[in-house]
Structure formats: structure tokens, C-alpha cells
Write a structure and sequence with these properties.
22% helix; 33% strand; six-stranded antiparallel sheet
Length: 949
């Protein structure tokens, strides 16, 4: 009898590099797993393909400790029997930069192909919420089918298959799979046949006679650790297969392709399933109308494309992040916040300073450090797996992630220093007098910029410099605001000698830069103004003032654009002077109980929420001058020392403790000359447990949505919660992800909240449209492995973040929407500010004292990457348009003695699509559609003038 239905049963595992166990315990488990998989492949020719979770990192990890298996592993990958990639690691999406997702795929695809081949499906069963631009990203890598999870609801996607549409209009066929998604066959069929019980019921519990022998380390220090089965069961009951398969089949009934179905067989750390071929053979004997096969995922995808009517499918637009929070791990955004902050620092440094300036340096004859940066990226990407970057782990693993991020940060800074050193050597500084101090200020943005920078400048002690006059190469004066002075003897490293001692006076000061060219630099000279009498205790030179200090009264900051007045309770009122808009009672703190877990926020039953609104604050003036002023604000709260969870919702009393602890917060609000934003740094030492701290801003703007920076787009999310038919919603899903800003606006005026390393916001429809930024969540260390089985580690306190922390964010009032107010550019400037290097000595180089290297002629276009190409000796420029309009613009490459010989539009995978025109060797016109990501390849060569010389 001919079978007219086909069931693709694909074994897989979800392999976290580190989660329930630290990395080297996981590595041992991986060795056992891979050894078993290779044995199965050796012995069972019908075992067609095992899916390695959409990533290549486990293969790399295994071969690091078992290099003797490389030839066999590569052979099975080449034969298609082990499917790896397209990802390098499995990142959580929202805490990382969108460009990091592309780099992850670039590395994953290339590494997979080096081992023998790459999965050509957008396999994404891991992200805790799916970013809106995924269809465009996957399509940019040539993938026409996506498997997603965590999650899209049945309300939005009533059928398993749907067309997922990015903000730019790219549509890709997508499946949310069936019930239990990647574990459907595993839960319903595999475990049922193997153990004879329903693994989703109370029957599922450990018994040695059922599951096999297990051991546990009996040391006191290991009392909270898991047990491990050491002799697992390997047989199954044929009579239970059909029953389990019927359940699995019913669980995929939402599919639109009724006769071709996909069944994924696996879960977290699951076995290679050596019994699978025998199970499929039995199922084929039992079934009269269905053929069961184990094949590659691509084979199933090909059949779906043939059978499906795409024009009849639902279209789902934007991000897939439907509640409840526990289903999409929605509240892990604010867990172990220090990891997210460190990650943002490393990303910003590598992407927006090290890589672009290494491009410019290499075009000037320097080393591109491609291998060095590759190593930095490896550290960074290995910190991005979803459990790792969110720190939903034991403390040792979080420490490992912090270490990796620190390595990436150090390597990024060292690479940037190397690039800048080579550029500085090429600059002609002979126009400045000997004995004067030189500062090179660098602008990392593709447009001209003027800033106030805080710098450390040294001068030889024998010069006895007290203060300085600053000027540019044309002699134009620049303002200086002194902060402090001290002495220090520096070692000066010299490869040709022992370190030279340099006795210096160290000056901390604010410096007005004047206009710095786009993605370039400017040399500023500092000439001694007054002399220090080093042996005189009194009298030092007295200050003079123009009477234009930014803080003109004890509690008021004011410049050309903003006026801020601090209130008694520590809130402040902000006036946007040009249009007279007033924002009142901004910036207070809210602290509430949190007895949830890493993935979902739960307040205790008898919660207590505290704010600083009813408290008097300490207010003081710190720096003050014509360039910058800072007011300090101290807040004091009496908070419960800890919180108690009612286990399983009924065991014990859920509440915050009666015993309290003084909890201090210090915020420094800074306003600079010429700035349209107010910068804030908040510092605290967390000394209480089980709570969430947020900072609140009543915006007073009547709006129906807030705009948050996403990945290559701006996510417009409604203020009013999305409700079900009964008018209900999940409050925990109202805390939402963001990258560098969230903006509240009504189309006429707006106020944006920029951040450096924060990841979560909420806007409330409370009459004032109050915007909350989450600073951190502190909770117990509980690892949810299964509903009835959790790992609890009460002695591990890392998840309570009992540490000193700093948070940086800004308030930026503007006109119109985020595009009209250039909010993206302001957020970029806040995250990657102008930076400076001091130069000692002079050089007779060929570069002028002011030079721009790259210019993009529209501030609403965003550079995602300016880097060396992966596979060719050329440069990759990635630009995206997050606005709702088409942008017609141009860019210019202005590096001395080189020009663009070829310009290609490329895919995200850096494959050439079409050749583009270049004007005069250094400029090109580009058109970027709304929400489009565009990638350009620049082939550079020596200019004709340089060749003639």
C-alpha cells in the first residue's frame, strides 16, 4: 500500500555551552554526547542526520578536547549526517547589538563550511523573543525558511506556518512548529516508549529501577548539586510507540501541510537517541499511510515549499515576543545587569572605534590586525549565548562570562590604541611649538561633531605649568576648564630601552574641541598660561571667571538649550528653552520586591514598593564652569533586607522582610556647554536582596506608543497593553527591551531617554505617561530545568548583585519624532563619545592637523559596521535606515593616497550582488529604503596622484 503522508523525524539536542553546569562540566557531558553520536553514526547507516542545534560551537568545543576525532567529525558533517550552523553560538537577541547577530552568522557559516557544510535553514529555537528584522537578516544570508520559538502566540499565528515580515517588507516562510516545538516527538513519543510514562505528568520522577543508577557527590560543598545517571536505560517498548506517535501527530495539527510534518526529537542536553532508527522502523511497520524518515531539515523545507500556498498564509509583522513572560523569558533582560553593561562597552569599542580606525590605519600602511580582532570577536561571541549573557546560571559561569567580556574589552582597546598610534605618526605636528602639549581628539561618527571632553593632560614637572590656553592649528582659541592637578612619575615603555621615567604634572580638565571632521581627528595645542610655584603652599594662582558658569545657582544648571532645577526631593524640572517645553518632577527611584526567577519577575504576595518622592534629598554642587557643571543628588531609602517567595504559590508566606537596611543612591547630573541633553550617572552599592530598582520620568506627553531602538530598526510599541478577549494582559510583558534609547513623542515634541548598557523600559498609561528604566533585578539563584525539578543554590549570591554599580543615561528633549530629532545620532554620541590621546614629541608626517576619513551625508543613516571583509582584501560598509522614509544620500572615503576602485552592493554574507558607480574615486551615491540594511564592499587602491609620486 502506497503511503501518502510523510513524517520527518529529526534528532537534535539543545546544547548550552554553559547553563545548569559551568563550562567544563558541560564540556565533559559534551564529550560523552559526541562520543555516543559518532558511535551511532559508525554503526547505523539508517541514522541519516543529527541536528546540532543550529550552531557550530559544540563541534569546536568537542574538538578542542578530542582533536583526534576531527577527521571523522568533518567526514560526517560533509556527508550531511551531522548538521551544524548557521550560528556560531546561540545568542540571546535583545541584550546584544544587531551587528553582533550578523557577525555571529558570518563566523558560524564560515566555520561550518570549514568543517564540511552548513545548515541552510534559519534555525532559531533559542532566542528569548525574536527580533523584528530576523526575516531580513536571514534572507540576507540566503535562507528562505525560519524555525522560530519563544514566541509567537496562536492569536497572531493560528497556523504553524506563516509569512514573517520584517519592517522593510521582507517576508520569509516561518514555522512555530507544534506543541512543545523542538521537543514534540521527544516528549510525546520517545520518552513514552522508553519509560512507559507520561513525562508531562506526576509520573515523571526519578526511580533507579526506571531510569538507571545515579550518583551524587557527597561532599558538604556539593550538597546543592545535581545527581547524575551513570547507567541510562537504552531500550524501549514497541507497544507504546503508536500511542505516543498519535499524541505527537495531534500536537502538530496546526500545520497547513497536513501530509508532510516535522517532528523534532530532542531537548536540553538530550542524548543522540541511538534507538531512533529502530523506532522509525517500527513506526513504518505500524503505520498504513505514513512514511517515517530521518533526514536533513533542508529536505523537509524543500517539501514544504513545494506543497504550501504562501499567498494563503497569515502574515505576522515585526518582533515575535508574546507573553506570558515565562514563555519567552521576558524578564531576564535585567538579570545580572553588570554583564549587559560590560557587553555594551565591549561592543561599542570594537564596532565603533577599533574596527573603523583600523580600516583607516591599514589604508595608511598600518596593520589591519585581522587575526587579533578575530580573537576579540571570539571572546565576545562566546559571551553571547542566551544563558551566558543573561547570567541565568550558577555564579562560576557568570564569572566566566564577565572574564570573556573583559578580554574582549581589553583587546578592543589595545587594537584601537594600535590604530590610533599609526595614524598619529602620520600627522604633521611641526606647526605646533616644542614644549606645548598636544591633544589629538577623535570623532568616531560619520558627521562633523563638536564636544566638551574630559581629558587627562600631563606636562613635564620642570615646566611648572599651572593651567593652559588651548588653540587649534589655525590659532583659534578653545576654552579650557580646569578640574584638578597632581603629580605622577610615569614609566614610558620603549622597546629599544628600559622604561624611561617621566616626572609629570597631571591635569584633569574639560576641553572644548571645536568642530572635529567626520570620522577623523583634530590636533589641539595646549600652551602654558600660568606657572606653578612648586614649593609654595600659599598662594597658588587664583581663578578668574567670565561669569558664565553653567551652574549659576546652587540647584540650577543652564546652558544655551536647557535649564534644570533640582527639587527638594531630588527630582528636577527641565525646560527646553528654544520651544519653552517644561518637564516636571523627572528622575525619582522606585524599588519593589522581586521573588521571581531569572526569567520572570514575580512580586511577593505582600509586596512593598518604595519611592524617593516623599524623601528629602541631599543636593550639592560638584564641577562648575563655563564648559561643564555637575550637581550631585543623594537619596536614602529604608528597604527590606530581603524577600521571601511562596514556593509553588502556596508554601510559605510571600513578602518583603520586616527587617530593613539603609539603601543609598547618588546621582550626578551633568550639563555641558552646547549640549542638548542632560547626562546622568547613578551610583549605588546594593546591600539588600530580592528587589527591582527603576528610575522614573513622568513625561507628560500624550502618546499612544513609545519608540525603542531595536536591531536595525525602531520598535514602536503601544502604551496601552495588548489585551485578550476578556480585557486581560500580562503586566510583566510591559517591561520591554531596548538598545540605546527609548523615545516618547507625539509627533510635535518628544523626550528621549538614552542609555549606556541598560536593556529594559516600561511606559505606563498613568496620566503622566511615566517612563521607567530598569537599573537591575536582584533574585535568588534558581535554575529552572523542568517544572518539577529546579536547581536551587541559596549559598550563591551573585544573582542578588550585591556589589557597587554605576548606571549612565541621558535625557534628550527634541522636536518631532525620533527621526526629526536625530535621536539615533544622539544615542550613538552618548554611547561612543569623542575620545582623546596626548602626543609627546613632534612628527613631520603627510597628514594635516585636521582630517576626516569617512563621511555619511545624512545623520539618520546609521553605520552598523566599517570593517575589513571576511574573505577578500577589501572593506565592508554596512548602513541601515531606521526611519519610515527613503533616504537618498552619499558617502565619502577621504583617506590620503587611496581611492575606491570598485564598489559593490553585497548580501549580508558579503556576496557581491551588483557593481555601483564611484564619483572621483572617493564618493558614491546611495539610496536606502525604509528599515533596510545595506552592505557595500569597497575595493581600495593607490590613487593616481600617489602612483605618480
Amino acid at each position: 500500500m502506497k503511503k501518502n503522508k510523510k513524517a520527518y523525524v529529526i534528532p537534535h539536542t539543545h546544547w548550552d555551552r554553559e547553563w545548569r553546569y559551568p563550562i567544563w562540566k558541560n564540556r565533559m557531558l559534551l564529550m560523552e554526547f559526541m562520543d555516543k553520536l559518532l558511535k551511532v553514526l559508525d554503526q547505523d547507516e539508517n541514522y541519516r542526520c543529527f541536528l546540532m542545534d543550529g550552531q557550530v560551537a559544540p563541534i569546536e568545543d568537542y574538538l578542542q578536547v578530542c582533536p583526534q576525532q576531527k577527521e571523522k567529525v568533518s567526514r560526517y558533517i560533509s556527508e550531511g549526517r551531522i548538521a551544524i550552523g548557521p550560528w556560531y553560538t546561540l545568542p540571546d537577541l535583545y541584550p546584544v547589538d544587531g551587528e553582533c547577530l550578523i557577525r555571529n552568522l558570518l563566523k558560524g557559516i564560515r566555520m561550518s563550511n570549514q568543517y564540511g557544510g552548513c545548515l541552510k535553514v534559519g534555525y532559531n529555537s533559542f532566542g528569548w523573543g525574536q527580533t523584528a528584522q530576523f526575516p531580513q537578516i536571514y534572507a540576507g544570508f540566503g535562507m528562505d525558511f525560519i524555525i522560530c520559538a519563544k514566541k509567537v502566540s496562536k492569536d497572531r499565528a493560528p497556523e504553524s506556518e506563516f509569512m514573517w515580515e520584517s519592517p522593510d517588507g521582507t517576508k520569509v516562510l516561518t514555522s512555530r512548529l507544534g506543541e512543545h516545538a523542538r521537543a514534540n516527538f521527544y516528549f510525546h513519543t520517545y520518552l513514552k516508549a522508553k519509560y512507559g510514562i507520561n513525562c508531562l505528568s506526576k509520573e515523571f520522577c526519578y526511580r533507579a529501577d526506571l531510569s538507571g543508577m545515579a550518583i551524587h557527590n557527597a561532599a558538604e560543598s556539593s550538597a546543592d548539586e545535581d545527581y547524575f545517571v551513570i547507567s541510562p536505560k537504552t531500550s524501549y517498548n514497541r507497544d507504546l510507540l503508536s500511542e505516543g506517535m498519535r499524541d505527537a501527530w495531534d500536537a502538530t495539527e496546526d500545520t497547513t501541510v497536513k501530509d508532510v510534518r516535522l517532528f523534532l526529537n530532542g531537548t536540553d542536553f538530550s542524548t543522540p537517541h541511538p534507538e531512533l532508527s529502530a523506532m522509525l522502523e517500527d513506526l513504518n511497520l505500524f503505520s498504513e499511510d505514513t512514511k517515517f524518515v530521518n533526514d536533513r531539515l533542508e529536505e523537509y523545507v524543500e517539501q514544504v515549499h513545494k506543497c504550501i500556498r504562501k499567498d494563503r498564509l497569515h502574515t505576522v509583522k515585526g518582533e515575535l515576543r508574546d507573553g506570558p513572560a515565562c514563555d519567552c523569558s521576558g524578564n531576564a533582560l535585567a538579570s545580572r545587569c553588570y554583564l549587559k553593561q560590560l557587553n555594551k562597552q565591549a561592543q561599542n569599542l570594537i564596532l565603533h572605534k577599533a574596527e573603523p580606525y583600523l580600516v583607516f590605519s591599514s589604508l595608511l600602511g598600518g596593520d589591519d590586525l585581522k587575526g587579533y580582532l578575530s580573537c576579540a570577536w571570539e571572546y565576545l561571541l562566546k559571551a553571547h549565548p542566551h544563558d551566558s549573557i543573561n547570567g541565568v546560571t550558577q555564579d562560576k559561569t557568570a564569572d566566566d562570562v564577565e572574564y570573556r567580556l573583559s578580554q574582549a574589552l581589553e583587546m578592543g582597546q589595545t587594537a584601537c590604541d594600535k590604530a590610533i598610534s599609526h595614524i598619529i605618526k602620520q600627522i604633521d605636528t611641526t606647526g605646533y611649538k616644542e614644549g606645548e602639549q598636544l591633544i589629538a581628539v577623535f570623532n568616531p561618527h560619520p558627521y562633523e561633531l563638536s564636544e566638551i571632553v574630559k581629558v587627562c593632560v600631563t606636562s613635564p614637572q620642570e615646566e611648572n605649568a599651572w593651567d593652559f590656553i588651548a588653540y587649534d592649528v589655525e590659532g583659534n582659541p578653545l576654552m579650557v576648564q580646569e578640574i584638578s592637578r597632581d603629580e605622577k612619575v610615569y614609566p614610558v615603555h620603549d622597546v629599544e630601552a628600559r622604561p624611561w621615567p617621566y616626572a609629570a604634572d597631571r591635569h584633569m580638565l574639560y576641553l572644548e574641541t571645536g568642530i572635529i571632521p567626520a570620522m577623523g581627528y583634530k590636533i589641539i595645542g595646549l600652551r602654558k598660561k600660568q606657572t606653578l610655584q612648586r614649593t609654595h603652599f600659599y598662594w597658588m594662582p587664583m581663578r578668574k571667571s567670565l561669569g558664565k558658569d553653567i551652574c549659576s545657582a546652587d540647584n540650577i544648571l543652564e546652558n544655551e538649550y536647557l535649564r534644570i532645577s533640582v527639587n527638594e526631593n531630588g527630582t528636577f524640572d527641565l525646560v527646553e528653552k528654544e520651544h519653552g517645553k517644561v518637564y516636571k518632577n523627572l528622575h525619582y527611584f522606585e524599588d519593589t520586591g522581586d521573588v521571581g526567577n531569572y526569567w520572570a519577575y514575580y512580586p511577593p504576595y505582600h509586596n512593598k514598593t518604595f519611592t524617593t518622592l516623599t524623601k528629602s534629598a541631599d543636593v550639592w554642587l560638584e564641577d562648575n564652569g563655563p564648559l561643564s557643571a555637575t550637581i550631585g543628588i543623594g537619596y536614602h531609602l529604608e528597604l527590606p533586607r530581603k524577600g521571601y517567595e511562596s514556593k509553588c504559590g502556596v508554601r510559605g508566606e510571600g513578602k518583603r522582610s520586616d527587617e530593613t537596611q539603609t539603601f543609598d543612591i547618588v546621582s550626578q547630573i551633568t550639563l555641558n556647554k552646547g549640549s542638548k541633553r542632560l547626562d546622568i550617572k547613578t551610583s549605588l552599592t546594593n546591600n539588600v536582596e530580592n528587589h527591582r530598582l527603576r528610575v522614573a520620568f513622568p513625561t507628560g506627553i500624550d502618546c499612544d506608543h513609545a519608540d525603542a531602538q531595536g536591531h536595525f530598526t525602531v520598535d514602536a510599541r503601544p502604551v496601552e497593553p495588548i489585551k485578550d478577549e476578556g480585557g486581560m494582559f500580562y503586566p510583566e510583558m510591559q517591561t520591554l527591551p531596548m538598545q540605546n534609547f527609548v523615545d516618547v513623542q507625539d509627533g510635535i515634541e518628544g523626550i528621549a531617554f538614552l542609555n549606556k548598557g541598560l536593556t529594559e523600559y516600561e511606559i505606563k498609561n498613568d496620566g503622566e505617561h511615566t517612563l521607567y528604566l530598569t537599573l537591575f533585578r536582584a533574585m535568588g539563584n534558581m535554575i529552572v530545568t523542568w517544572w518539577e525539578a529546579v536547581g536551587e543554590f541559596p549559598k550563591q549570591k551573585g544573582s542578588q548583585v550585591l556589589r557597587t554599580m554605576e548606571f549612565e543615561y541621558s535625557i534628550y528633549p527634541h522636536q518631532m519624532d525620533f527621526a526629526g530629532g536625530h535621536v539615533y545620532a544622539q544615542a550613538a554620541e552618548r554611547n561612543v563619545p569623542v575620545f582623546a590621546y596626548q602626543i609627546c614629541g613632534r612628527s613631520n608626517g603627510t597628514l594635516t592637523a585636521e582630517q576626516g576619513f569617512f563621511k555619511l551625508c545624512d545623520k539618520n543613516l546609521v553605520i552598523s559596521a566599517l570593517k575589513r571583509a571576511e574573505d577578500r582584501d577589501s572593506i565592508i560598509l554596512r548602513v541601515f535606515n531606521p526611519t519610515h522614509s527613503i533616504i537618498k544620500s552619499s558617502f565619502q572615503m577621504m583617506v590620503e593616497d587611496v581611492e575606491i576602485s570598485e564598489l559593490w552592493e553585497c548580501s549580508l554574507n558579503e556576496e557581491r550582488i551588483s557593481r555601483q558607480k564611484v564619483k572621483e574615486g572617493h564618493e558614491a551615491d546611495i539610496i536606502v529604503e525604509s528599515n533596510k540594511i545595506t552592505t557595500w564592499e569597497l575595493v581600495m587602491e593607490k590613487s593616481k596622484k600617489a602612483v605618480e609620486r
